[in-house]
């Protein structure tokens, strides 16, 4: 780990997160002079003493080194938007569930004017990402008692038992998850992608280096301004790839003068590129966590398993269909065991609405990069009420599973939402009053052709109108795939890296 900040680099990667580490590794392997600037710490390669225990522990979600983002007063209840500020990014925090979505998700991206992004073109990159992240698949017999109960119980409502969730042509079913877990360790992209290339002289990684803005002269990127050890520095570069994620990438662009001129002028930021789509199109899959009391039989079985040293909170997941997408799937069911609120233990299963129609935004409040932005997801605000109705249908399907003979004795009494929310109208009211997120924010630097007034980057990730400036992370997704976004984020890194290395290859 360098103890100094270089003054120049061929390519600067802003953010050593899920996608950024993929980009950096691929460029470095190709001989490109590459500098990774990570706002949080770089703990070093796997095995270094500095790695926090919660980041390594694959049985629970990570929580340390968080950016501290939340909904503020934009929602009826305050919702935390956990994002890791450390090398590895959100691959440090997530539940390690690796799902791909459906073919239509990516074919729709390509059809919207983004060549190179169809499902068939991305399939080899999903395979490569799966290999690099050392993804393995649980077997049904490895599931914990709580996970197995839901996996078996799903057949009551017609959910077939699948081997994997990751057939791009397959629709509904319950399956053991594919996970990037190695010997109990959450195998993040720092381990998977950076570690094999850390020895290369043309790769430098600097932690605690918070990039304020991209520097642009006469429409061309010339470098970045970065806060490092309390001082401002300029790093010159021929090319900058912003990989901060759906919350941070639009902030970097906005502070750089790339965005909606009205917002920028209000904050005294000189306008470099008039791109009103920067920070817009924010969406995530709204989520509702249902909970039950559990049972003595379930508690005993889980305690016995935990005594063996391995009982992860997440292991199985279902793809399910609401009435809005009867021929595909638009919901995830996620068993989760157990959660606590105060002294009360809760055995849970969540539902996520995978194809939300509600849209929000991310906007800087200040030119100070350490000032948290306004993050307004506007969950459940689509005019037709689609997102709320999908969640309500998911709750009703989960209730049907939980009420089945043999299952109801294991799950116990419903705690949340609770039996008082039995009819659709009261259930909808409860959902609207308790919005929550699935930790999959996307869309704030939308990918699309320059003719699209809301597009921020082209299909190759280059910011429209700013030569040498790219974005490569989940912020470029025009629409969210019906998936957890960890592996799609890796694939974005793989795809954009290939465009950077072979700019003329396009998509013949």
UniProtKB/TrEMBL annotation:
Single GO term (MF): oxidoreductase activity, acting on CH-OH group of donors
Source species of the chain: Micromonospora endophytica
Residues noted as binding FAD in the record, renumbered to the chain: 18-19, 211, 439-440
Binding site for substrate: 438
Domain of life per record: Bacteria
Transmembrane domains' residue ranges: none
Family: Belongs to the GMC oxidoreductase family.
InterPro entries listed in its UniProt record: FAD/NAD-bd_sf, GMC_OxRdtase, GMC_OxRdtase_N, GMC_OxRtase_C
Keywords associated with the record: FAD, Flavoprotein
Pfam family, one: GMC_oxred_N
Protein's recorded name: GMC family oxidoreductase
Cofactors (names): FAD
């Amino acid at each position: 780990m360098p103890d100094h900040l270089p003054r120049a680099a061929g390519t600067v990667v802003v953010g050593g997160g899920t996608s950024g580490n993929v980009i950096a590794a691929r460029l470095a392997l190709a001989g490109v002079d590459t500098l990774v600037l990570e706002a949080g710490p770089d703990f070093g390669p796997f095995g270094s003493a500095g790695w926090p225990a919660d980041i390594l522990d694959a049985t629970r979600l990570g929580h340390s080194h968080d950016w501290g983002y939340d909904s503020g007063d934009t929602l009826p209840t305050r919702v935390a938007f956990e994002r890791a500020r450390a090398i590895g990014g959100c691959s440090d925090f997530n539940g390690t569930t690796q799902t791909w979505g459906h073919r239509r998700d990516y074919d729709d991206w390509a059809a919207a004017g983004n060549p190179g992004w169809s499902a068939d073109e991305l399939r080899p990159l999903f395979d490569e990402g799966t290999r690099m992240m050392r993804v393995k698949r649980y077997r049904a017999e490895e599931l914990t008692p709580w996970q197995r109960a839901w996996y078996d119980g799903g057949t009551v409502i017609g959910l077939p038992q699948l081997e994997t969730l990751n057939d791009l042509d397959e629709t509904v079913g319950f399956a053991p998850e594919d996970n990037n877990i190695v010997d109990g360790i959450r195998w993040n992209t720092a381990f998977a992608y950076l570690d094999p290339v850390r020895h290369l002289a043309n790769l430098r990684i600097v932690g605690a280096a918070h990039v304020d803005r991209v520097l642009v002269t006469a429409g061309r990127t010339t470098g970045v301004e970065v806060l490092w050890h309390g001082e401002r520095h300029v790093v010159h570069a021929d090319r900058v790839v912003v990989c901060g994620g759906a919350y941070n990438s639009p902030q970097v662009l906005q502070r750089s003068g790339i965005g909606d001129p009205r917002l920028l002028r209000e904050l005294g930021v000189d306008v470099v590129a008039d791109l009103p789509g920067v920070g817009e199109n924010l969406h995530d899959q709204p989520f509702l966590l249902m909970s039950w009391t559990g049972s003595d039989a379930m508690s005993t079985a889980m305690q016995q398993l935990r005594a063996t040293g391995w009982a992860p909170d997440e292991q199985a997941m279902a793809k399910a269909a609401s009435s809005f997408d009867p021929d595909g799937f638009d919901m995830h069911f996620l068993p989760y065991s157990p959660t606590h609120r105060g002294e009360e233990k809760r055995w849970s299963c969540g539902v996520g609405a995978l194809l939300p129609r509600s849209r929000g935004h991310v906007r800087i409040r200040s030119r100070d990069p350490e000032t948290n932005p306004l993050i307004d997801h506007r969950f459940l605000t689509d005019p037709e009420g689609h997102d709320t109705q999908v969640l309500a249908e998911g709750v009703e399907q989960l209730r049907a599973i939980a009420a089945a003979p043999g299952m109801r004795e294991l799950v116990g009494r419903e705690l949340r939402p609770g039996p008082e929310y039995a009819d659709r109208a009261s259930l909808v009211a409860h959902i609207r009053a308790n919005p929550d997120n699935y930790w999959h924010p996307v869309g704030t630097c939308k990918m699309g052709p320059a003719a699209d007034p809301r597009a921020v980057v082209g299909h190759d990730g280059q910011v429209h109108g700013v030569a040498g400036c790219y974005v490569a992370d989940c912020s470029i997704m025009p629409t969210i795939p019906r998936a957890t976004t960890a592996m799609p984020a890796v694939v974005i890194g793989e795809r954009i890296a290939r465009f950077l290395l072979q700019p003329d290859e396009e998509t013949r």
